[in-house]
Amino acid sequence: MSKPATSVREAIRTRYAALTQSERKFAQALLDNYPAAGLASITISAANADVSTPTLARLVQKLGFKGYPQFQQALLAELEAKVSGPTRRRDQWASDVPESHLLNRFATAIGDNIEQTLTNIDSAQFDAAVQMLADTDRRLYVVGGRISRALAEYAFTHFQAVRQRITHMTSSSATWPHYVLDMNEGDVLLLFDMRRYETNLLRLAQLATERGVRIILITDQWASPVASHAAHTFHCWTQIPSAWDSNTSTMMLLEALIAAAQEVNWPETRSRYERLDSIFDAARLFEK
Question: Would the pTM count as exceeding 0.70?
Answer without folding.
Answer: yes
